[in-house]
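Why show two proteins at once? Because comparison is the fastest way to build intuition. When a single record is shown, students tend to memorize it. When two are placed side by side, the eye starts asking what differs. So, the first record is below.
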Amino acid sequence: MRSRLSKGTIGAITAVAVALSPLALSGTASAHSNNNSVRKLVKAVSGKNVKKHLQAFQAIADRNGGTRVSGTPGFDASRDYVAHKLRSAGYDVTIQPFEFTFDGYKTPPVLKRTSPAQKTYAYGFFGDYVAMGESPSGAASGTVQGVDLVLPPGPAANSSSSGCEASDFAGFVAGSVALMQRGTCNFRVKVDNAMAAGASAAIVFNEGQPGRTEVDLNPVLGGPGVTIPSFFTSFEVGQELAAAGTAVTMNWDPIVETRTTYNVIAQSRKGDPNNVVMLGAHLDGVQEGPGINDNGSGSAGTLEVALQFAKTKPKNKMRFAFWGAEEFGLLGSDHYVASLTEAERAKIALYLNFDMIASPNYTFGIYDGDGDAFGTAGPPGSDVIEEDFEKFFAGRKLPFTATAFTGRSDYGPFIAAGIPAGGLFTGAEVLKTEEEAQIFGGTAGIPLDPCYHSVCDTIANISDKALDVNSDAIATLAATYAFDTRAIGDRAPAAAKSAARTAHGHKPADSAS
């Protein structure tokens, strides 16, 4: 998710603008909500308590092979932790099971240089290498043999034809590991030629021009038929392996099977059932690590807000969701939205999503609800949510930036169903710019989350400040909309909500399509 700095928010927020901001009153209160309840909730939600949930998620991962990925005991233990906390707080909790295709590995992948000096490479899209899609299982050890490499790389992408012709393998020693460079032909042609030459394994590395250096793509082989383990590495790793006398050990042990995972849905016992305010975060991580920032942070912030909110009496029904299998393609939230009737969807006034709220090299990102930054707006009402988040940060005199509605997180199924949405995001693999470093602090030229989808996404991989500030922002908007969503718009059928609005003293609101 790429973001850009919101106009008028960096050092240009005047004292007048802050003073006029409804959500900026004393830093937290809303002009269209129960002011006292907002203040109390924000005060009750402390970063220290949010971090305790992260510590619990870390302990769960530590006891379960270092991961909380859906379809494993680590995720199930995370589910049980969240559900227990919510039930104890008095919520009606539903555990929603669904099946999905688990695509991972049985044992951790291995790419290790054994000579001239030992070095173990990190697996994952933010590491040193990945297995190519459709690579078969297998292990190999042997000398690395470069195949028609262009080092240093040519000035233009696709200037390398490494491995594209059978003649590239003249003199190739059978049983060696074929090292090839990205470029010209597709990966399958390269690997097929390596197989025909007797390679025991194949490694393709990124070509080396700007934008073609990292493990930042999804390399696929295009179907069955490959018989040797096949990896894709960064350009840096490829250069290292191209050195004379290099030998490696490789192992790939994939598993693809149907498994069951779960959503956790908690609903307040009080509040208008025809006007539901919904907050959510995905509870799962990736197989490579504990998933503490991605997305223990969003889950922990949402959970703590829910626990503290249990002590209030909202006018609107509050619903908190913790999604399974987001990392496999938003499967949990998609399953949930698909399972609702049209009438049930219409009762959801809005959805707030929190995915990565404590990145160590953070920016304060707000989803671009009105579309003015990226050209893609959310459903009507999303602009109001964005504005209310902006008012929160303005009230704290903190900078903020827009982040695009790319469909990359669990708001996707909601906006596809026409439900107003918004949320917060502190950044993943995108590099922090010099301008962002000047405004938000941190380090330019490195990712907003240097441990994104990696083994190092541990309790050490968070910003306490971002976690605390964003948890307060979650609490502010939760309490604001718990008492009044008229600024968002009235989506449910008028007849279904008329009695409830009258009972709560609401004036009829214009409907928003």
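Second record. Ask yourself what differs from the first in the token line.
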Amino acid sequence: MKEITADVLVVGGGLGGVAAALAALRAGRTVVLTEEFDWIGGQLTSQAVPPDEHSWVEQFGVTASYRALRDGIRDYYRRYYPLTDAARRWVHLNPGAGGVSRLCHEPVVAKAVLEAMLQPYRGGGRLRVLQPWKATAAESDGDRVTSVTGRHRDTGEQTVVTARYVLDATETGELLPLTGTEYVTGFESQDDTGEPSAPATAQPANMQAVSVCFAIDHVDGDHTIDRPDSYGFWRAYTPPFWGGPLLSWRSPHPRTLEISERSFTPNPDDDPLGVVADQRLNPGDANLWTFRRIAARNLFTPGAYGSDISLVNWPMIDYFEAPVIDVPDADEQLARARELSMSVLYWLQTEAPRPDGGTGFPGLRLRGDVTGGSDGLAQAPYVRESRRILADYTIVEQDLSHAVRGDKGSVTYADSVGVGMYRIDLHPSTGGDTYIDVPSSPFQIPLGALLPRRVENLLPAAKNLGTTHITNGCYRLHPIEWNIGEAAGALAAFCLNEGTTPRAVREDPSRLADFQSRLTADGVELAWPDVTAY
């Protein structure tokens, strides 16, 4: 069994984990970063989810390092891809011209940029990356985590990592049970949180759907996959709130819950330069092909792309049959989620209604080369809702809901360590709930939500901070996860450099001011300009 020592251990190499590692490294600390899957980057890469971002992302409301990631992705396209002259001149280049985001792109490009951001520290010997590696056990001494043990997926080799600070940046908060850190799952009760939308009784197994995304293009020929074994089940599956079969163009509109019909037109002859991706104005999902398109062929020189590439993260792939956290059959449920996605693809190829009155699009081709998954799908499931620490401060609905706060805007936190913005966006859940998708006000990220109530040196660095089931709906998105991770990594380094503790930083106004000044110097915005909810 190998033994490694570092100042900071970051378990989980998603967006929060990479941001946490970079922040600690910038502050001069040694870091071990681990990742379970073949690609770092989490929801942006191995989960293949184009970035969900707020409307002002090109102007403000993200950290400088997150902006460097976005700029790096665009620079990568300009450097290596055969863009048209017009696309190359497009300041806010959107390679996929998707309706969901101003920066829809192929997952592997983000992976390349993230690797480049980490490489100087790997070369300098202060960063070690263990991959593909999964935590299996942890040791604690009182209220401090002393080490984490994990196993290499392919070789089975075990490694013990000892660190003074341990950051949980996993997609499910998997270090929390391993370390005995107190946490919550699912829907809290109204008695627990006071939230107007919470149920009377806590529902710990009621969690948002997970999704296994995949990429497709549309080319000549018949690319129909073998009929999945579970296709008959999913073809007949009719959720009570869906308005019909799950596998159809009809589903609830997330914001109004009215049953609406979406269109699907592979390779529309649209002008990608004219796409305006602004979720404040339009969720962008009317045409599912362009909704999360990650390569718009008309942005590249003729012949470079024979087809657009579209990323399928659509309503019908949401798996809400059962939770995948703190259940004995989690692997089985995740396998069923993958079977659902394969069934959706088969339905698209064989039975989906076409505008011309026919059925099926056999020219749809699964692009596993784009997502890196061995079965053609994304490598990892998109997990929207994690275990969440019981924190010194819990962010609740009445802190930021526009329905509650109105024109006052979100609650102001004296201990802000960043900002974020997204609608309270909850997908159908394992408790039988339909969408909740309502306005929120631009919000700050409070340091208190990063502090477990008891454990002193474990910090959440992803979606596992002190939110609720409801507020997780707006804290779970790409730039916010990055900011959470960056703040956690910076906090660990600050405490080591200053000989203090996270709780002391929050409780001492002078130390808090020093830490916030450090964040500001690194390009972390702590407050919003005067913008309103949507």
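One difference worth noting in the second protein: The longest helix spans residues 330-350.
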